[in-house]
Every structure is written in C-alpha cells, then in structure tokens.
Amino acid sequence: MDGYRAQLARWLQLLAAKGVQDLLLVNRPWPLEVPLPATLFTITTLTRLYVGVWKLPGTAALRGASFPRLRELGLYFVEMEHGVVDSLVARSPVLEILNIVGCMKGGLRLRLVSQSLRCLQICGFVLEDIAVVKTPCLERFILSSPCKPAGGLCTRLRIVDAPKLQAFGYLEPGQILEVQGTVIMPGIKASESALLTSVKILSLNVCFGVSNDVKMVPTFLKCFPNAERLHIMSAKCGQPTGNRLTVKFWEESDPKQNLLSRINMLTFREFKGDRGEVGFLEFVFQSARALDKVAIFMANPSFTRFSTDEALVKAQYSARNLASKYCEKCIIWSSRPEGGDAWSLRVGADFSFEDPFTVMPARKEDS
C-alpha cells in the first residue's frame, strides 16, 4: 500500500465528495507502518469509521479535522503518538463508541473528555495511563487482555468524572485504580467521593494463586457498593506465590459491611478447582443473600491439574452453604481454550445487551 499513497489520497477525496458515511480502511499487505493520508480527516460526513494497520498522522495534522457526525470509531493495530486519540475524540462531538484494539509500538495513554461517549473498549494494548476526566454519558468501560507495561510499571486507571458508568471491567488487582484523586489500596478507608456508586455490573480478572492479587479484591469491591452483577475470570498464574487464601480470609476482610449485599448474579469463568477459587466461592455463597443466579464455567479439563470429577466436586462443595434457597445454579464445562470469555467488541458496543460480560439470558421480568 505504501506505493499507492497518492492514489489512496485521491480515493479518499472521491469518497468525501460522495458523502460516504460508513468506512472501513485496512492497510494490507505489509509494510505495517504506512502513514495514513490526512485526506481521511476531511471527510465530515462519516458516522462510522474503522481503520486498521496504519500509522496515524500526528496531532499537528489533526488541527483542522472535524467529524461532526461520527458516532463510532475503531482503531485496530495502529501506530500513533500520544494525544492522537484524545484529539480525535475532541473533534467528534457526537461520538458514542470508541474501540481501540492491538498494539504496534509503545503504550497507550488517554485523557478522555467527551460529552457524548457512551462506550469505551480497549483490547490487547500496553496500557500506561487511562484517565476518564469528564465523560458525563459514559456507560461502559471495558478493558480486555491488556499487555504488561515494560520495566515492571503498573497500568494506572483514573476515574474522575463518569456519573453514569454502569459496566466496568476487566479490572485487575495489578492495576492502579484511582477514583477522584484517591488511590485505592488495601487498608484504605475510601471516602464517599472515591466510591463508584453508579456501577451495577463489575468484572474482575483475578489470579487466585497470587496472594497480593487476591488481597486487592475486597478492596476493589468496597469501591462498588451498588454492584448487582459480579463476573470473575480466574486468570492463569505463571508461578503461584504466597498462601492460597481460604474462606476465612474473606470473612475477616468483611467483618460487618457485607461487600456482596446487592449481588444477585455471579459468573465465575475458568474454574480449575484450586483452593483459592473454592474459598472465594464459599464466601460468596454464604454471604450474598440477594443471589438468585449463578453460573460456574469450568476450565477446559486439558488446562486443570485436577480431574474432571475432582473439580466438579469442589465446585458443588463450595455451594453447600448457599444463603439463598431460591438461587438458580448451573455448572458448565468449557470446551474452549483457557481464557475464553463471553465478551466481544460487538457485544460490548451493543446496548441491546444489558450485560456485556455474560451470555446468561436475561430474566423475564428484566426483558
């Protein structure tokens, strides 16, 4: 494509003249870092734009750009300098959906200010610093399969102003969560301003074999006091560290508050039968008194150290003290490779799906 840049610029001019609204522009084949013609940013009629495997122009080239009708933007495996996404969002006054997928070079830093954005999805990127500064309409903030920053650094997620945020995940204990200027850490007594009270659907990606990760879970849960649906992904641990925390740890971490008082739906994916997983499920089943729907998705037997029968018995044993007598339970074996989940970019951006983290059908009274 590098040899056809002038021709591509001409094509984009013709598309602009024809008032194109929906455009998917992918650079194939190699090389991957071909500069995307700035002509693209003169097409003011676009309502949906997806670009893949390009090098985006710098912020200086975007100063005159404007997307007054753009509602959906997808960036796939693009190379870009810091500030480009912020600039594109700022020039898209009705943008509702922003999807960013894949990393070619460097990490991702965002400082989001948007009066219209409803859904932000980031997948497979090296996340450095994501700041949700002012997004009064943001309902979904989904992070999936993030790559670890170099040098042992941690991803920093900052939520400043997102009053309508309803679905948030996959939050990982290794990430630094900052809410209204308060860094969330074990032992902290979060003020009212550091609580994300609007979040109803929460998803956590937890390595139950790593004590430091597990110890962050109750701390995170305290930040979402109104969460009604909890989705857990049991992450693969390279080398387990520390003690496998049992139900006693969870009871001691929640002496009076009952972190799970509002949870009515739980999904637990990639259950392998490890002690830490069983301890967490025991705590949930004896504490979440509003619970009425549970699905445990067993890991593919090829990826577990227990036999099929052993892991199944452990899952059933954890539910022996289920607080609610009216809870609908199901235990399902997965045939997919380890790490499979229900979320997808399509589902996440489709607001007809009430919950982007589960494939469980909605209750009749909710439909």
Automatic annotation (TrEMBL):
Protein name: FBD domain-containing protein
Organism of derivation: Triticum turgidum subsp. durum
Residue ranges of domain F-box/LRR-repeat protein 15/At3g58940/PEG3-like LRR in the record: 8-232
Residues covered by the FBD domain: 253-296
Pfam family, one: FBD
InterPro entries: F-box_dom-containing, FBD, LRR_FXL15/At3g58940/PEG3-like
Highest rank taxon of the organism: Eukaryota
